[in-house]
């Protein structure tokens, strides 16, 4: 059965919601699936039905306990099946996304060092006057450093697949980009064969796709190179898992040793757990589980204790995320029912259309390689103005206020890659760091990110393109109407009454009682195309007004070092 997209669109929770802006109410158009997916009515209803028999797991003695235990195991098996995993793989639901999955594997491998432990060792060495002890400890660490594992990462890693390894007991080596801005497979081979890393554990931990530019890594090619050089191949699928096929068990040397996944980014997935799936050979039962607690033991007495032998059980300390794992499973299964070929065909068409139009605008800088076949449907861009740029947070604010488009501004938690894409030198970076330490976050560089999800319709794609083109042409005129908070970088409409959002203001148990009076799944069907046309008309009318009154009275930063690197213009600032 082919999944009907019109049915899925109508089941999306929130696609009929309006937000209030300085220009009136705007229908929310969600273009931020890269950060998180949207929930689906039928999945939420199904989970509510399951909750009628909800109970804790860890028992087979009651109907509810056995049912939930069986459901949890079935959900885990379904997830494994969706990525080609088998009896040779373990699955662990952990945290809320890939970050938890990476951290857990880092602990399993014995590479995770808690910040508190590192601090305490450092303090002990400083306070210990016994030079002999200090020298022994220092000598031990130096010997361990010479043989510690090497983690190879790409230049476009999310902070979670970079900083976790940087802070671990491992040496991190970055692979370069090639001349086309893509993963440099030759550089990987050369660095793996570097004599310095001979006889050391070699691990490649790479993003399957960038969450900034959407450029894809050929994961099976990388895996083959890693295995050829006696290494392990891990992949962070946080950005791409909702859109591409994952085959962890491909034949020969192209298999993947571990994958990290964020199901909350799937359609239907928000609220689900993070997923770690890895080859069973990576786990040693000779050491305790990563968390020694209830649910990980077969026997505990005042005299001794025994941990479980079952890896998936011993890594479920305490109460597992039962509903979270069930939801992750349903999101995975829905993606597979839709079909990755179908998803990729739609998104390739969308991103090609978007790039072909936006690249023609002189004020729009699209980040990363422009070949749509080399990327998933993520687009990050900046808008030029007066040899500078419009602040990315200003652009996202205009997209929201004028058009209701939900985008994201910043560095997308991939700062090193952002530095390269934006051409930021070390000297400039240090000044930006000083400004940030001074509380001036507005100087932090970044970009605007949108993505073109397979569930949005082509007229919605056209609307988002038109909105970006409008801001690229006329966005600077609105600088007179907005002020910037130099501390946060946030922009707001001048003299607008900042009433707290009703949802935030009213949050609490008493307002949950109000939901008894209505069907929370009831939906309207806004006439989107008419609304989009109206929003563009209003925006053009506003720009015509502003043209007659625009004054470029641009302000400056007080400190000369900060002013010397100012990359955006502003006219009004908040006190």
From TrEMBL:
<dbReference type="InterPro" id="IPR000192">
    <property type="entry name" value="Aminotrans_V_dom"/>
</dbReference>
<protein>
    <submittedName>
        <fullName>Selenocysteine lyase protein</fullName>
        <ecNumber>2.8.1.7</ecNumber>
    </submittedName>
</protein>
<dbReference type="InterPro" id="IPR015424">
    <property type="entry name" value="PyrdxlP-dep_Trfase"/>
</dbReference>
<dbReference type="InterPro" id="IPR015422">
    <property type="entry name" value="PyrdxlP-dep_Trfase_small"/>
</dbReference>
<keyword id="KW-0456">Lyase</keyword>
<dbReference type="Pfam" id="PF00266">
    <property type="entry name" value="Aminotran_5"/>
</dbReference>
<dbReference type="GO" id="GO:0031071">
    <property type="term" value="F:cysteine desulfurase activity"/>
</dbReference>
<keyword id="KW-0808">Transferase</keyword>
<feature type="domain" description="Aminotransferase class V">
    <location>
        <begin position="139"/>
        <end position="421"/>
    </location>
</feature>
<dbReference type="InterPro" id="IPR015421">
    <property type="entry name" value="PyrdxlP-dep_Trfase_major"/>
</dbReference>
<dbReference type="GO" id="GO:0016829">
    <property type="term" value="F:lyase activity"/>
</dbReference>
């Amino acid at each position: 059965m082919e999944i009907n997209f019109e049915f899925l669109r109508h089941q999306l929770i929130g696609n009929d919601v309006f937000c209030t802006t300085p220009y009136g109410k705007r229908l929310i158009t969600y273009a931020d699936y890269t950060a998180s997916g949207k929930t689906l009515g039928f999945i939420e209803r199904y989970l509510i039905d399951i909750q009628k028999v909800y109970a804790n797991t860890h028992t087979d003695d009651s109907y509810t306990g056995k049912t939930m235990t069986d459901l949890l195991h079935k959900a885990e098996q379904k997830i494994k099946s969706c990525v080609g995993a088998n009896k040779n793989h373990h699955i662990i639901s952990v945290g809320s996304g890939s970050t938890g999955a990476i951290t857990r594997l880092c602990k399993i491998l014995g590479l995770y060092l808690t910040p508190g432990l590192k601090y305490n060792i450092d303090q002990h060495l400083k306070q210990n006057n016994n030079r002999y002890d200090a020298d022994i400890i220092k000598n031990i660490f130096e010997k361990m450093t010479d043989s510690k594992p090497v983690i190879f990462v790409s230049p476009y890693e999310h902070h979670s697949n970079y900083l976790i390894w940087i802070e671990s007991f491992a040496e991190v080596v970055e692979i370069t980009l090639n001349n086309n801005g893509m993963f440099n497979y030759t550089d990987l081979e050369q660095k793996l064969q570097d004599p310095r890393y001979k006889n050391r554990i070699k691990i490649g931990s790479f993003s399957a796709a960038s969450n900034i530019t959407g450029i894809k890594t050929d994961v099976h090619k990388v895996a083959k190179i890693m295995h050829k050089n006696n290494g392990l191949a891990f992949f962070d699928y946080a950005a791409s898992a909702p859109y591409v096929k994952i085959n962890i068990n491909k034949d020969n040397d192209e298999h993947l040793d571990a994958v990290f996944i964020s199901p909350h980014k799937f359609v239907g997935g928000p609220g689900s757990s993070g997923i770690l799936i890895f080859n069973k050979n990576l786990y040693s039962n000779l050491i305790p589980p990563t968390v020694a607690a209830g649910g990980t033991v077969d026997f505990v007495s005042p005299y001794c204790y025994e941990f479980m032998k079952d890896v998936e059980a011993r890594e479920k300390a305490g109460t597992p995320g039962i509903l979270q794992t069930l939801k992750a499973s349903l999101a995975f299964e829905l993606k597979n029912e839709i079909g990755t070929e179908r998803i990729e065909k739609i998104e390739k068409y969308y991103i090609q259309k978007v790039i072909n139009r936006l690249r023609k605008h002189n004020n729009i800088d699209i980040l990363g390689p422009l070949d749509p076949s080399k990327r998933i449907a993520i687009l990050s861009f900046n808008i030029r103005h007066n040899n500078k740029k419009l602040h990315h947070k200003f652009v996202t604010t205009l997209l929201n206020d004028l058009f209701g488009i939900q985008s994201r501004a910043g560095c997308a938690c991939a700062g090193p890659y952002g530095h390269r894409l934006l051409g930021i030198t070390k000297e400039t970076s240090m000044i930006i760091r000083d400004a940030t330490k001074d509380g001036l976050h507005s100087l932090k560089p970044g970009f605007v990110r949108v993505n073109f999800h397979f569930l949005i319709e082509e007229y919605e794609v056209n609307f988002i393109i038109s909105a970006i083109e409008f801001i690229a042409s006329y966005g600077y005129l609105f600088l007179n109407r907005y002020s910037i908070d130099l501390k946060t970088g946030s922009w707001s409409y001048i003299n607008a009454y900042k009433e707290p959002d009703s949802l935030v203001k009213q949050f609490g148990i008493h307002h949950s009682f109000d939901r008894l009076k209505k069907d929370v799944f009831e939906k309207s069907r806004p006439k989107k195309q008419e609304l989009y046309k109206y929003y563009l008309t209003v925006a053009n009318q506003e720009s015509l007004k502003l043209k007659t009154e625009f004054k470029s009275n641009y302000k400056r930063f007080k400190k000369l070092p900060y002013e010397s690197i100012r990359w955006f213009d502003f006219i009004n600032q908040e006190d």
